[in-house]
């Protein structure tokens, strides 16, 4: 339109028009606040649980004058937190605007929210300012211990070990608990004749399940465990369940140790009381990286077997993708199972099940369903073979992993398999 006006107006009038426009543009540019006139602050928790969303409160304030009407805002975060994320700002005072941005913590580690990008128009709408306000906020993403802090595990384990079920199962254990008066219905083999003679009344030994068992949490950190299931890496699901198991073992009076491996043995923390082991294991697991090498089950399990001098419950979090890997895994678990109680934990892939059960609508969909069914059948054959060897196999969906693992642990204690 301005070019058309310049064509129909005399040169002097067109020059005057362009001069007025330039003056307005310069005046508009002088009136618009720049990035240096604004401050930004982010409120964030000290730690974020992996796999959960974190909501950061954003406060933008003006050093002088009012805050400009922000037309768009984005948070510049690391890819593990979702990258550039849009959010909205609303004025709460002439010199302040507040908002909140939600980020998803998809991996463990220390990640940065480097800056906040803002966009606003000039007073006359002749310019648009895009400003980058540095924040340099660091978010520490740690293993998810939500079941621990919420008290879910305490309620489950204490009810099993010290509640009604514990009262019923007393007398079935192998560890002496206390002497009680003999009553009708009690096993006569429990009578302590020596103490009965001393007290001149029948007393019986009350037994309970043995405590101070040794539990080893063995985490496979090879490249297969980097694969995502339900929005989180397999190794992160395993770490979350391992920490829940550590807390439950502390309630049960057992000792817990940690062992991790990939192509070669890595961390080893000797078993210690569960309550003391929990902070140590949590710190070590929070710092565990994501490996991209293939796991060597033969070397790792042989190394672990050589370290253990006492019968233990070994919980192995691992995965396999082909029959060759599975064959080596089975052979080494069979050797380990001769002296220890083995629980093999692997995650079921919901996406694989969806592809297998979906109604195919094309040739490609049929091929995907056939491949998925073959993979599921091969996995089941391996798990069935492990079960026949006496190994407890736990294949479950990510959202039920912790509950299933704790139930298995409590069942092992009740049956005194260790």
Concise structural overview:
The longest helix is centred in the last third of the chain and has 26 residues.
What are the key terms here?
single chain; 418 residues; alpha/beta; Immunoglobulin-like; Rossmann fold; 3 domains; eight-stranded mixed β-sheet; six-stranded mixed β-sheet; 13 helices; 18 strands; DUF58 domain-containing protein; DUF58
Write the layout of secondary structure elements.
Blueprint lengths: L1 H7 L2 H21 L6 E6 L3 E3 L3 E10 L9 E6 L6 E10 L2 E9 L4 E13 L6 E15 L3 H4 L2 H11 L1 H6 L5 E7 L11 H7 L3 E6 L5 E7 L7 E2 L2 E2 H18 L3 E7 L3 E9 H14 L9 H11 L5 E5 L5 H14 L4 E7 L2 H8 L5 H26 L3 E5 L4 H15 L3
Parallel strand pairs: 2-8, 11-14, 11-16, 16-17, 17-18
Antiparallel strand pairs: 1-3, 3-6, 4-5, 4-7, 5-6, 7-8, 9-10, 12-13, 14-15
Helix pairs in contact: 4-7, 7-8, 7-13, 9-10, 10-12, 11-12
Q: How are the strands of the largest sheet arranged?
A: 1-3-6-5-4-7-8-2
Low-confidence stretches: 164-172
Sheet having the most strands: 8 strands, mixed
Distance between the terminal alpha carbons, to the nearest Å? 87 Å
CATH topology of the largest domain: Rossmann fold
The level 1 CATH classification of the largest domain is Alpha Beta
Structural class: alpha/beta
CATH superfamily of the largest domain: von Willebrand factor, type A domain
Q: Count the strands?
A: 18
Number of individual domains: 3
Our estimate of the beta-strand percent is: 25-35%
Say what oligomer this is.
Answer: single chain
Residue share in helices? 25-40%
Mean pLDDT: 84
Domain DUF58: 181-351
InterPro entries: DUF58, vWFA_dom_sf
Protein name: DUF58 domain-containing protein
Pfam family, one: DUF58
């Amino acid at each position: 339109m301005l070019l058309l006006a310049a064509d129909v107006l005399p040169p002097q009038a067109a020059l005057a028009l362009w001069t007025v426009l330039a003056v307005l543009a310069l005046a508009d540019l002088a009136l618009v606040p720049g990035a240096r006139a604004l401050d930004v602050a982010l409120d964030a928790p000290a730690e974020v649980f992996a796999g959960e969303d974190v909501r950061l409160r954003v406060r933008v304030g003006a050093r002088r004058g009012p805050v400009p009407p922000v037309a768009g805002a984005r948070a510049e975060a690391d890819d593990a937190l979702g990258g550039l994320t849009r959010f909205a700002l609303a004025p709460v005072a002439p010199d302040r605007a507040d908002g909140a941005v939600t980020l998803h913590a998809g991996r463990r580690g220390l990640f940065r929210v480097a800056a906040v990008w803002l966009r606003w128009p000039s007073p006359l709408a002749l310019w648009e300012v895009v400003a980058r306000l540095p924040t340099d906020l660091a978010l520490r993403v740690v293993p998810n211990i939500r079941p621990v802090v919420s008290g879910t595990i305490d309620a489950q384990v204490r009810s099993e070990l010290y509640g009604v079920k514990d009262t019923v199962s007393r007398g079935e254990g192998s560890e002496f608990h206390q002497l009680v008066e003999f009553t009708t219905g009690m096993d006569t083999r429990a009578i302590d004749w020596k103490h009965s003679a001393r007290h001149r009344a029948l007393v019986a030994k009350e037994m309970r399940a043995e405590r101070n068992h040794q539990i080893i949490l063995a985490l496979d950190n090879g490249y297969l465990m980097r694969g995502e299931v339900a929005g989180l890496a397999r190794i992160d699901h395993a770490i979350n369940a391992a920490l829940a198991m550590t807390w439950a073992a502390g309630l049960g009076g057992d000792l817990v140790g940690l062992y991790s491996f990939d192509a070669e043995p890595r961390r080893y923390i000797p078993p210690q009381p569960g309550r003391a082991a929990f902070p140590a294991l949590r710190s070590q697991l929070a710092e565990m990286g994501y490996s991209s090498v293939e796991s060597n089950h033969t070397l790792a399990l042989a190394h672990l077997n050589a370290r253990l001098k006492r019968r233990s419950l070994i919980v192995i979090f691992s995965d396999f993708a082909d029959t060759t890997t599975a064959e080596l895994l089975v052979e080494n678990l069979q050797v380990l199972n001769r002296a220890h109680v083995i629980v093999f934990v692997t995650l079921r892939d919901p996406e694989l099940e969806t592809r297998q059960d979906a109604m195919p609508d094309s040739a490609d969909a049929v091929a995907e369903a056939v491949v998925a069914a073959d993979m599921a059948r091969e996995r089941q054959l391996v798990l069935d073979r492990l079960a026949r060897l006496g190994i407890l196999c736990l294949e479950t969906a990510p959202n039920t992993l912790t509950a299933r693992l704790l139930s298995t642990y409590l069942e092992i204690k009740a049956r005194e398999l260790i």
